[in-house]
Structures are given as structure tokens and as C-alpha cells.
Amino acid sequence: MDATLARHITAIAAAVASAPVWAGAITGGVAFPGDSIPALTVVAVDQKSGKQFQVETRAGQRSYRLDVADGSYIVFAVPHGAGVGDEPVRHRCAAPTAPSASAC
User: Fold this and answer.
1) pLDDT tens for residues 39-78?
2) β-pair partners for 52
3) Closest listed residue to residue 61, CA positions, set 29, 34, 26, 27
4) Euclidean distance between CA atoms 13 and 9, whole angstroms
5) Among candidate residues 86, 74, 79, the one with its CA nearest the CA of residue 60
6) Of 84, 63, 64, which is closest to residue 54 (Cα–Cα)?
7) How far apart are CA 88 and CA 102, in angstroms?
8) Is-contact 36 59, C-beta < 8 A?
9) 20: buried, middle or exposed (CB in 10 Å: 19+, 13-18, 0-12)?
10) Are 84 and 72 in contact (CB under 8 A)?
């Protein structure tokens, strides 16, 4: 075997050996209140280690797949993209004008 071929085989073997080993996948569907599904970041958190795996979906996409290591996960989704703010919405309520009126 010539030296160039041996170097390529060694490089391929090293890349395969250092690649992460996935135990499986989490797949599911997404829903969102309203008429359309925005772009979402789906996050799976390993309950033991706290390690996070995530995937971004496109607006209108109804399913996702996350390749994960062996474990038990909590999965949630967060909207992202245009029109999605990073801060929670803060409501200002006016003082009630009548004694029985609600403040909000």
C-alpha cells in the first residue's frame, strides 16, 4: 500500500472513531395556537446530564427529528424568527374606574 493511501485510510478511521454515537432519535409533531405554526426551535434536555439537543423547524413545518444519545428527555419548543420577541409581553393595566371593575 502506498503512503498516500495509508494516510487517507488513517484519516477516515480517525474521523469515524471520533464521530458521536447516537442511540436513537426523538420524533414528533408540533402544534401552535392560531392559524399557522411559526418557525420553532425544538429542544430536548437529558434529564440526567442536562445536555441539550436542538433542531430548528421552518414556519409551517409540522414535524421534527432530533438525533440523541441514550437517556430520558424533556422536550419543548420555542418560537423563533421574524416577529418573535425575546422578552415576554408586558401588559399595563389601567386603574378601574368603578368600584366593581377589574384592574385588567
Assistant:
1) 999 999 999 999 999 999 999 999 999 999 989 999 999 9
2) 45
3) 29
4) 6
5) 79
6) 64
7) 22
8) yes
9) exposed
10) no
Within 8 A by CB and 6+ apart from 68, the residues are 22, 23, 24, 25, 26, 44, 46, 53
What single letter denotes the amino acid at residue 102? S
Q: Which three cell numbers stand for residue 77?
A: 419548543
**Measured between alpha carbons, how far is 72 from 94 in angstroms, rounded to an integer?**
46
Quick one: how far is CA 12 from the chain centroid? 31
- Note the pLDDT of residue 15: 39
Give me the amino acid identity at 87: E
Cell 418560537, residue located: 79
Distance from C-alpha of 77 to C-alpha of 97, rounded to nearest angstrom: 40
Domain-wise residue ranges, the chain:
22-79
CA 30 to chain centroid, in Å, comes to 11
Query: What is the identity of the amino acid at 51?
Result: K
Per the document, the length of the chain is: 104
